[in-house]
Amino acid sequence: MTDIYTLNVKNNSTQTGSFCIFQEAPDVNIPGITTLAWLAKPAHPTSLLEFQWGLDYSFVWAKTTNLEPGTIVKTSQAWDANLSTMNHVDFDFSDGAYTFSDPSQGDYEGNLYIDQTKRVMSNDASVGIGMSGKGSFLVPSQPNMKVIMTPKPTYWLVFGNFEEGEILDTTEVTENAVKLQYKGTNTMNVELTGNNTWKILAN
Predict the structure, then answer these.
(1) Residue 98: Cβ-neighbour burial (10 angstroms; 0-12, 13-18, 19+)
(2) How many other C-beta atoms are found inside a 10 Å radius of the C-beta of residue 53?
(3) Interatomic CA distance for residues 52 and 33, integer angstroms
(4) CA quadruple 87, 72, 189, 23: dihedral, nearest 10
(5) Helices (H), strands (E): how many in the chain?
(6) Which of 33, 62, 160, 174 suits 113 as a labelling partner, its CA being 20 to 30 A distant?
(7) Could you write out the DSSP letters of every residue in 46-67?
(8) Which whole-number Å values give the CA distances from 37 to 21, 40, 46, 52, 82, in the listed order?
(9) How far is residue 107's CA from residue 114's CA, in Å, rounded to a whole number?
């Protein structure tokens, strides 16, 4: 069973908004990767929220083609994956719809591979990866293209007006985000203070 990570976050600001966790982008062999608001929960002032997740990877795709910041992506399919024995999948257009098929072991451990067939249409869908049941990264579909992603599970927390699955402008949101560094622990406690700064609390 995968390790479970916990984040307890307290809203001690005067604002109502959403705490949002996003991940650091993986290494990828093609351009155009977009980052999703991976986990998000609304919080009024004085609220205490808990996030939990495991390092359970998945392959995801969505019919969404507008990969611009602010777009909310609803994934159409998610297949379980891991970084060693089940890290390769085909993406095909069959019988009028897109689908994953033929999960298998890829060339190298540590990578996640999505092999798009010749029937896939350019920029007609989006394919990518997720973790703990939620999408985290997408790229536009392309025929005869193998997407190779090497995850770097690093997490950032930001506060604002966010929804799960929303495409983020990471150059903008990272400025106001705090990096969650799980060093020797699986639990972190974080406070958004009254002057809208982050404070890491002792466990």
Answers:
(1) buried
(2) 20
(3) 25
(4) 40
(5) 1, 19
(6) 174
(7) T-EEEEEEE--EEEEEES----
(8) 6, 7, 23, 15, 21
(9) 12
Residue type, position 199, single letter: K
Q: What string of DSSP letters covers 7-26? A: EEEEE-SS--EEEEEEEPPP
- The amino acid that residue 178 corresponds to is V
Backbone angles phi, psi at 152, to 5 degrees: -130, 85
Task: Please list, residue by residue across 116-149, b when 16 or more beta carbons sit within 10 angstroms of its beta carbon and e when fewer do.
Answer: beeebeeeebbbbbbbbebbbbbbbbbeebbbbb
Half-sphere exposure of 79 (CA within 13 A, CB side): 19
Q: What is the pLDDT along the chain (203 residues), one digit of tens a residue?
A: 578 999 999 999 999 999 999 999 999 999 999 999 999 999 999 999 999 999 999 999 999 989 999 999 999 999 999 999 999 999 999 999 999 999 999 999 999 999 999 999 999 999 999 999 899 999 999 999 999 999 998 999 999 999 999 999 999 999 999 999 998 899 999 999 999 999 999 88
Tokens of 72: 């909310």
CA 194 to chain centre: 29
Token couple for 114: 């999505």
CA distances from 22 to 66, 133, 164, 177 (A): 19, 14, 10, 10
